[in-house]
Amino acid sequence: MIYYIKNKYISLAVNSDGGSMASVNYLGEERLWQGGEYWKSQDVAIFPIIGHAGEYEVDGKAYTPKSHGVARYSEFALADISVDRITLELNSNTVTKLTYPYDFDFLITYLLKKNSITVTYTVRAKNGKIPFYVGGHPGMKAPGGGAVIEFENTERPIVYHMNGETVELGETKRFVADKAFFKQCKTLQLGNLSGGKIYAYTTDGYKYTYKSDCPLFAFWSNEEGGDYICVEPWWGINDYDGAPKEMKDKPFINFADENGKSFSYTLTVEKVQK
To answer: For residue 57, which phi and psi values (nearest 5 degrees)?
Structure first.
């Protein structure tokens, strides 16, 4: 089911199938990629695995997850809704336990404030403490499938390559993330950031602003086509050859107990030129 919340700037549609955003209509213009040949999704609620992970283990038993985990393939229930806020909830079940053997509640809250959307993921264990990754994957419209990425603060990021290698970059303020860029790096994973805002400028005069204290931001667009750019807040990392097999030992792993733990990012949409 599609649920809608709105204010005078943004009308947001959220799909209970997967719990992710289906539409971000800003002042009458759709700004969320609506799916197509080069990526069928618009957004992904990532939990409890990030990326195309290989087999992992829990207490020595092997599990083979689907891409980005169980949330994107699950039906969420409506937990709460008002004019400008909605919360969806996924509870562990026999299907989720096939690839993630823990009992959990996973809630996603979308809150509108002016031209910003704050997304909050809450993970709560039902029995003991559970390990997991979590993150967002919004695909925002960008003609040509790229954007100029600029940091609010001068950063000295660490690049986490898909093969597990890391590279420390020098001072970085901006870079161009276009199709040629993605043909070279596929997915760019950046860590060691200051927590300042990240801006993505598109060729049609829009600016997307991302704000989060997540340990990694990923940048991606299909190198072959698609008019979208993904700037993804991640509390976790893609799996790689040589990574620990046991889930609780993986880098950037998070833990939650029955009290729950929450993770948030804010996405702001604005037109900066005519």
So the answer is: -125, 145
Give tens-digit pLDDT for 90-148. 999 999 999 999 999 999 999 999 999 999 999 999 999 999 999 999 999 999 999 99
Q: What is the DSSP letter of 46?
A: B
C-alpha to C-alpha distance for 204 and 148, rounded to whole angstroms: 12
Q: Is 258 in contact with 126 (CB distance < 8 Å)?
A: yes
Lookup result for tokens 């709460």 = 80
Q: How far apart are CA 87 and CA 108, in angstroms?
A: 5
Total-model pTM: 0.97
**Cα(20)–Cα(110) distance, rounded to whole angstroms?**
10
Nearest of 71, 13, 65 to residue 42 by alpha carbon? 13
The span from the CA of 26 to the CA of 263, in Å, is: 24
Distance CA 51, CA 68 (A): 5
97, burial (CB in 10 Å: exposed 0-12, middle 13-18, buried 19+) = middle
CB 81 within 8 A of CB 92: no
